[in-house]
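Try this one yourself first.
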């Protein structure tokens, strides 16, 4: 017999509320199958099985809020030591349990105020513990936009690319070239991540933001990355993200260009070590070889952890993004 325990749910999340069981006693499950729907302060997640077996007993009732590590379901045909969440250098540790919250007499909590408190606590911890430094540069998008328009002219509207897909792919590839921005700082040690799991900040309709990951973003074709981006945003706003998508982003990108913001200086999500901010694409004057013209451009910023990298490596990372965008057909 083996107990499947509630796994880490993401940075700053210490507990979850069981909303729905997706399996019952006697069901057979495989690794990756969704077992339950769990609600957190940030979103609603599908919790997946970590092993194969048969459901023997459900150990938590719907509606219960339990800490990370709580036995959730008993699965036959597993070893006890396999039931515990496997240790990983790239999965952030759960934060200490939150202080008790005051619940109105009606028993209805405000979802929005709890989310704001959670985000505020996480960002305060980030600013207190991470020595941030900031860099910014202006990216020339003339070649990228021209290539994208040419490609889109031969496609139906539903499959057309947007600039965000090109910017995300260039960021992921640059992170592979400058690994000091991709990974986690845990227990006083930087633990670089070979895969680039790109966290993408998504504004929720009810307020607040989440930053689930597009896994292995550096290896995806731009078309595939675009599809995954649309799917991720849709499921994030519907509250149906997978637990793994919230638990292991290695680098986060926040893009507020659609709100008219020209530059974003983000706060790093601990234990990550960097965040990239992207503003809106604007036409601006551009001098080149003694000639003045206008070009589409975007301001990219880097917030990075000075314990892991410095301005030289940070500048190289931003320059690498710019270089990649000059050959968009190779992304």
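Now uncover the answer:
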């Amino acid at each position: 017999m083996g107990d499947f325990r509630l796994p880490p749910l993401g940075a700053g999340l210490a507990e979850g509320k069981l909303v729905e069981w997706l399996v019952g006693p006697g069901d057979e499950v495989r690794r990756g199958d969704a077992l339950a729907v769990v609600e957190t302060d940030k979103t609603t997640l599908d919790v997946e099985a970590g092993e194969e077996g048969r459901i023997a007993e459900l150990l938590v009732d719907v509606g219960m809020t339990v800490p990370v590590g709580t036995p959730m379901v008993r699965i036959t045909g597993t070893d006890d030591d396999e039931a515990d969440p496997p240790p990983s250098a790239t999965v952030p540790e759960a934060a200490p349990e939150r202080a008790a919250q005051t619940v109105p007499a009606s028993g209805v909590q405000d979802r929005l105020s709890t989310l704001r408190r959670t985000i505020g606590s996480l960002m305060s911890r980030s600013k207190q513990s991470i020595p941030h430094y900031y860099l910014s540069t202006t990216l020339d998008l003339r070649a990228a936009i021209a290539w994208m328009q040419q490609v889109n002219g031969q496609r139906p509207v539903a499959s057309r690319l947007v600039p965000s897909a090109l910017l995300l792919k260039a960021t992921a590839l640059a992170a592979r070239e400058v690994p000091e921005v991709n990974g986690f700082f845990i227990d006083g040690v930087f633990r670089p991540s070979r895969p680039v799991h790109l966290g993408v900040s998504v504004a929720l309709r009810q307020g607040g933001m989440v930053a689930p990951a597009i896994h292995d973003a550096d290896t995806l074709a731009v078309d595939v990355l675009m599809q995954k981006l649309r799917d991720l945003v849709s499921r994030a706003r519907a509250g149906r993200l997978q637990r793994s998508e919230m638990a292991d982003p290695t680098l986060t990108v926040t893009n507020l260009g659609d709100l008219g913001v020209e530059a974003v200086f983000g706060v790093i999500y601990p234990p990550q070590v960097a965040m990239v901010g992207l503003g809106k694409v604007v036409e601006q004057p551009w001098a080149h070889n003694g000639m003045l013209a206008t070009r589409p451009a975007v301001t990219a910023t880097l917030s990075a952890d000075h314990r892991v990298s410095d301005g030289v490596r940070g500048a190289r990372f931003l320059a690498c993004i710019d270089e990649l965008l000059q050959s968009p057909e190779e992304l």
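Discussion: The longest strand covers residues 291-305. The radius of gyration is 21 Å.
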